[in-house]
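Students often ask why we bother predicting the structure of a whole assembly rather than each chain alone. The short answer is interfaces. A chain on its own may look different once its partners are present, and contacts between molecules only exist in the joint model. In this exercise we take two input lines together and write out one structure for the complete complex. Read the inputs first and try to guess which parts will touch.
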Amino acid sequence: MNERPVFSLKEVSKSFRKTQALKEISLDINASEITGIIGPDGAGKSTLFKILSGILSYDGIALFKGEEIRKNPELIKRSLSYMPQGIGQNLYMDLTVEENIHFFATLKDVPKRVVEQRAEMLLQATGLQHFRQRFAWQLSGGMKQKLGICCALISEPEVLILDEPSTGIDPLSRRQLWEILNEYLRASGTTVVFGTSYMDEAEKCHSIMFLHRGESLYRGHPEELMQKKRGLEDAFFEILLASGEELKEAEVPVDGNMRQREGEVIVEGVVKRFDSFVALKGVSLTVKPGEVFGLLGPNGAGKTTLIKCMVGLLRPEEGKIRLSGLEPGSTELRFRIGYMSQIFSLYGDLTVKENIQLYGTLYGIKGRLLKERMQWIINFSGLKGKESTVVKSLPLGMKQRLALGCATIHLPSVLFLDEPTSGVDPVARRLFWDFIKKLSNSMGITVIVTTHNLVEADFCDRVAIMNEGEIIALGEPWRLKEAFTSTNGEVYELYPEAPLPAEWFSESSISLVPYGRRYHLWRKGLSVETIKEILENHGVGYHYIKRIPPPMEDVFVYYLTGQKVL
Amino acid sequence: MMKSLYRIKEIAFKEVKEIYRNRLFLVLAFLVPFIMFVVFGYGITLDIENMPFSFIDYDHSRLSRELVERFIGRYFKFERPVKDVDEAEDLLSRGALRAVLVIPPDYSKNIYKGRTAQVQLLVDGGFPYTSLIIRGYANAIVAAFNQELLRQRQYRYGVASTEPPVRIETRYLFNESLKTSYALVPGLIAIILLINPAVLTAIAIAREKEFGTIYNIYSTPLRKIEFLLGKTIPYMIISTINFFVVVTGVKVLFGIPMKGSLFVLLPGAVLYVLINVMIGLLISTMTRTVVSAQIVTLIVTIIPAFLYSGLLIPVSNLGVEGRIMAHIYPTMYFMRIIHGVYLKRLGLQALLTEIGILLGYVIMLFALAMVIFKKREG
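Now the answer. The structure tokens for the assembled complex follow.
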């Protein structure tokens, strides 16, 4: 791949009024590769994508095939498909699946005679072929994103720019999205620019750039980072610390240590129906006091319904739920549980102090106690000196910690967190989880958390994987991994010198999942020798083969797709 | 060229599908303008019965009482006695009364002598349409009374006289220059066709911005003119349909005839609709959200529509600034076309200037939209 890079950026900067969104970014994007732009929310990813797409002005040099984008922005638009950030953002909600694809074909001048055939192929590949007449608004988040990809690929673009296509969709849909991309890339040689805030997704890219506050902190291949660290989440964490981010020890409020562990959660045979739809089909689980319990599962699996039943917002038709021995919905219990849903529970136009005061009032905390707790929340969320700042102008990580503080101001027995850390950087995530650990270890607070970020599953004491209203796996993360290896064999990571066709391995019924230039492979009884043999037979060299603990994502997908090995 | 037309057609079709399938949008497109028309129309016409009325009788005769009795009935309701003109004006200005009949001291003397007696009707002119109706009723009442008097006179004296015994003069307080009757309801056509197309179109682009679909337009080779035309056409058609609905409403609901021809009105209406679609287009290229686009459009359209269009206040009665505003906003020219067709039976020839001016607006605004709309964000 010694060709000229498709995009070549030199010291590209962009400012919006006072804020500088991008600071002197230099980057080459190679043809027929997936280049990952990794970074938390607000890092400048979208700004970069808009510049590449010719819809945003910039300072510096940005070349597309040797031509300055600024000079002829319409040129790139002929070779490009751009998918903006947000689930279903590029779709017309009142059009059907087919109509959306056809409209994009019109926008991109795809000759009529090839549209049908291509649309058919894409619908098949994405599994949307049975939903042609569905309106876009009727699709689930994962399906919307797949349709978005179909629309983007209908013109067979040379360049595909995807701005966080996988944010907010479940790990299974995410896996399928990557399969489609890898498949398509191999067949067409398209250049893909992929934005994401999931650090582990960077492992699947060929080249990556780690963006943070508009600056490029790392450029290169994921393999280089992986050699030093186990996962990219850890690698980026180190990079951030090196760049001057601070990691502070979380504290416990003065009166926090004296509490009793009482937040036991018992769920027995809970059934919840919505008309004819059964959302929960007899769910049972027990969460010990002080445990951090993760709820995983695809969208629509029943996670939210289960949490709503536990909090007392929904009443199940059958079964029993007890939190600290109390029934959900009772007034007494309301003062003993906390709930944080992403960041929307804060009032953006109020200051930090006002938000904390408001929550204190809601939970009947006043006087000296309120002052103490306020100090505590401000300390651990790193908001010292920003007490009078309006919340909406804070960085995402701080907002999330503040929201967590507000949800725990009354030191609840049980704390519910709904996707608490989506979109934050690894340091902010680590701070958040350190604090959650503190809450559970020192104060004995039971924490129940839902997440799509499987990196976080490893932070939990135990996890439950839900699908279609049932719990299909339950246990410590290492136990689930063990169960995975005992049925599927060990997982190996292989870094070959050239891309590998899946057929070489499917012949010997070995599962092969591409991760950028690397692959994960497994089969019961698979040994390093077998892999080496296959490579030798085809005359392909390799950098390394090593045994790795199965990534949570592979485990998750394995459970969801039944006992079948992928 | 063919490809271009194809793309314009596809964009327009997509737009129509979205409107058709989105119930809220459908209501906004068709139901709201109709409701606006009916509400405005009846709002101005409904309180035309039982109007609070009083009289000042300086004559105190049998004939003066007879005249007053004729006034009081279905249309005028006697509210309270009034002692002099000052009090009458005060009550009229506060809206406690809508009309006051003033009968002078020499009223019956003049009638008996065969001369014409003058009476005066003081009317609150703040509501032009109501005032016009009041004058119409008063004239009819006096005419009937005159007929009666003349018949009696002929019966008694055997003389046929053509001189009316009583002549009523209407004096409008607060807005003295009411000109034409039947002007207001047709005038509403101009208002509805101003507000509705502008608001709808403003939403159309702002919605794509808010949802993110605008990036499809930004990031594809689609040309600006194709996008803008594709967006314009559906709303032009919707508003033209609304034009026919409102014209039918003027006739059927309010029984107001059109003296001139619909074919004279139509070209002006289509151009006028186009102008307002463009106004919406311009506003939505400059705003980011649906709500802000709507609010800006409402402010930009409603205020001038009522103040500077010649609907409620004749343009000639406005101050200099007002008159300048009236000439800048296109509504006045279409209002002239409406009045010309509805009241004066004017032909196409006589209205060519107005139509030409409207055409000029269309071209100017579209050019402006082409300049302002950019296929990029910043």
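Check your guess against this: The CA atoms of residues 118 and 167 of chain B lie 5 Å apart.
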